[in-house]
Amino acid sequence: MYALVKLIQSVVSSLNSQGTPRQVAAGIALGSGLGLTPLMNLHNLVILAAGMLLNVSFPAFLLGWALFVPLGFALDPLFHRIGRGLLVDTPALGPMWTAWFNTPIVPFTNFNNTVVLGSVIAWVVAFVPLYVLLRWLVAQYRTRLYVRLQQMRIFQVIAASKVYNCYRLFRP
Amino acid sequence: MKLFRWKAIGTLAGVVLLLTLFSWLFLDTLVRRGIEQAGTLVVGAKVELADAHVRLGAGQLVMRGLQVTNPSHPMQNLVEAAELIAMVRPLPLLEKKLVIDSLAARKVRFDTPRKTSGALNRSSGVSSAIAQQVKEWAGQVRIPSFSLEGLGRAIELPRLSLDSLGTTQQARAVVQFSDSARRTWEAGARALDPRPTIDSANALVARLRALDTRALSLDSTRRVVLATKSTLDALKRTTDQVRTLERGVDSGVARIRAGVAGLDDARRDDYAYARGLIKLPSLDAPDISPALFGKTALDQLQAILYWVRLAEHYMPPGLLAQMHEGPKRARMAGTTVVFPRARAWPQFLLRFAGLDLTIGGAGATAGDYVARLAGLTTEPALYGQPFRFLAGRSAGRAGPQNVRVAGQLDHVQAPSRDSVEASIAGLALPTIELPPVQARAALGAGLTEISLLRRGDEIRARWRIRSTDVTWQRLADSGAARARAPREIEDLVWRTVSGVREVEVEAEIRGALARPSLSVRSNVGTELARGLRKAIGAKVEQAEQRVRAQVDSLVQGELTAARRRLTAVQAEVQAPLTKQQAELAGVRTQLEAQVRRLTTKIPLPR
After folding, report:
1. Which of A21, B79, B207, B415 fits as disulfide partner to A138, beta carbons 3.0 to 4.6 Å?
2. How far is residue B289's CA from residue A112's CA, in Å, rounded to a whole number?
3. What digits encode the pLDDT tens for the residues B160-219?
4. A103 chain-B contacts, CB cut-off 8 A
5. Is the CB of residue B15 less than 8 Å away from at least one CB of chain A?
6. Which tens digit of pLDDT belongs to each residue from A90-131?
């Protein structure tokens, strides 16, 4: 068990060599894909690979996943409507779906499910605006909020605790 | 800053390897759960599998301990199989399609009891919706009541209110529509008034007849012809307007006529309604049989209807996209859409399945059986062959002498054509309680026949049982029934039904698949009708005559009013219009003849 924990620690520390606002924002935006879309699907393997291979903050990637899971649950009815609109209510796309879902491996993406397709499309569309917004928020936090927080007693208590280890990943 | 973290490739490879290893280790469990989930979704009740083992190299799937719950009876399995071995084609698996070349089964049993209920906790999905629709249909089927209580007291005619009778409602609707339509038509006819046009045209015809064409110059002739043509155009316009009005009148009169014709049916319904109020039993066999066996028959036919509609959903004809409920998960399931493509594999195909089984012992089911099925698929249009099945008993030790089930579901192209025939002789039939006659019939062993014919939206399904070994048991008198039905009538009913040694019940649903009509026939009903008619026929007939007379006297005024409206509209609106139309046509023909006479020698611009 100890060996496993050490392995995870070393993986995280090796992936988190840099933590600029861009990297943190890109990590959260990428990780949000895992949270917004149903997990057990092939496209999430691709997102995971991107999170690991691209030079983004991996802890931020994990944080993005965790943060966006509840949002994904809440937005499922909207995703269903988007997916239904594309799969069922747009006959012009029918030939494309027919060719796609009769091609080897592609059906394992489960993009013929309204919630999966709707959530992936929503995430792809929201990716760039989300990245820009997060980058601005992280930069604002580091220049303004962090200085004030440092002087608060509760912050100093937390800083001494284990929770701080996680928080430290977003420190300037 | 570098874009890629190349050193993470090793870690990623490790993660992928772990996932692959996990999938391989738990493949059997994943397949077992997948089969259970898909089966449960399709059947609408629990499908359980004790174990599944995938041999990828051999393309083989071995399933053990399969239990398929009967959705109509959750404490029973429709079918139970100890072992099933499927030979699976590997390449279609890459497209997430399951193509089974052959399936062999061992130790298959039907209608076995379950230890726990196989009903689903959460009713959703297509099967539940279909079950609900079939249940709603069954709830709306009117099973007539059979009550003897009215014979136990002096027959008093019911107090009928005029408004409670359907004839009154319908006759009033006819009168109202006639009056309203007549006002509209008369206003239209007044506005149109073709009389001046007809008179003017007649006068022109007279003038033209008197004209000497040889005395006219070319220019004068041309002017006369053009003026005549102008009148002809006006005549044509008027004719068209009258024809439009006439069509509206004809359609309205047809509606009034249909309404008047339907009054007789409404009156018959009112007779039945009023008769029902005095609680006298019907002495017609077609009424008694549904009252006795309607519920039992409905239960049997509901199951047939459920499976036909389920097959329609999961085996639709054509290549249209199919929509199914998405997989069960913590997140919303959504809808999974299947897009069939011509000349590709279907999502699911079982090319051939065969099972030979032996049921031991000396029971009624003991013997050797054989079953074959071919072409079971979710996209029959892609497979191009109908789904065929055949099951029968090859040798019996005891019990049924003849078991044969055969069918074909042809959904290759619309309209769907299904035909199923099942005949089981010698198997135990159910015990049927008949509370209206306070009797229970233990039918013993006998013949069960089921047949189904379906083409498109039309269905005809028949369920028939026949027993020559019936034992009757008299049910304890219910307090309410005993209080009102005379003892001698109850005794007569009991003597009649208990004297029937051969019972035959035949039920049929026929008509639109969504809402077929039910009919039930039985020799028990016929015998009972004959016995009752002999004993109390005169009394019932007399009461029925009085009821009919009462209904007639109440609705006579309304009936007469409705019929008068029809006659009046026909004579005073429809006939004059027809006459005017004939006059217009006549004068138009005469004018055209005059134009031809004038233009025989003169070339005119067209």
Report:
1. A21
2. 51
3. 788 888 899 889 999 999 999 999 999 988 888 888 888 888 888 888 888 887 777 878
4. 95
5. yes
6. 999 999 999 999 999 899 899 999 999 999 999 999 999 999
On whether residue B527 sits in a domain, the answer given is: no
The encoded tokens of residue B580 equal: 């005017």
Task: Of B21, B93, B23, give the one whose Cα is nearest residue B61.
Answer: B93
The pTM for the full model equals: 0.65
Q: Is B226 left (phi over 0), alpha (psi -120 to 50) or beta?
A: alpha
Measured between alpha carbons, how far is residue B522 from residues B124, B143, B500 in Å?
A: 38, 14, 11
Instruction: Note whether residue B313 is domain-resident.
Output: yes
Query: What does the radius of gyration of chain B's CA atoms come to, in whole angstroms?
Result: 37
Q: Domain check: are B86 and B172 in the same one? A: no
Cβ contacts of B2 on chain A, cutoff 8 Å: 55
Contacts of A21 in chain B (CB under 8 A): none
Residue B567, in any domain of the structure? yes
Q: Which residue of B has its CA nearest to A50?
A: B4
**B180 and B252 assigned to the same domain:** yes
B96-125 pLDDT, tens per residue?
899 999 998 888 877 788 888 888 876 557
| B572 and B453 co-located in one domain | no
Chain A residues in contact with chain B using a Cβ-Cβ cutoff of 8 Å: 11, 14-15, 18, 20, 38, 40, 45, 48-49, 52-55, 72-73, 76-77, 79-80, 83-84, 87-88, 94, 97-105, 107-108, 110, 112-116, 118
Q: How far apart are CA B540 and CA B536, in angstroms?
A: 6
Domain stop point among B482, B508, B523: B482
Residue to test with chain A: of B2, B337, B338, B348, most A Cβ within 10 A: B337
Domain-located, residue B251: yes
Question: Domain range for residue B164?
Answer: 160-278+555-599
What is the number of other CB atoms lying within 10 angstroms of the CB of residue B207? 12
DSSP string, A34-51: HHHS-SSSHHHHHHHHHH
Among chain A residues, the shortest Cα distance to B3 is held by: A55
Mean pLDDT, to the nearest integer, of B244-273?
89
Q: What is the ipTM of this complex?
A: 0.79
Same-domain check for residues B345 and B468: yes
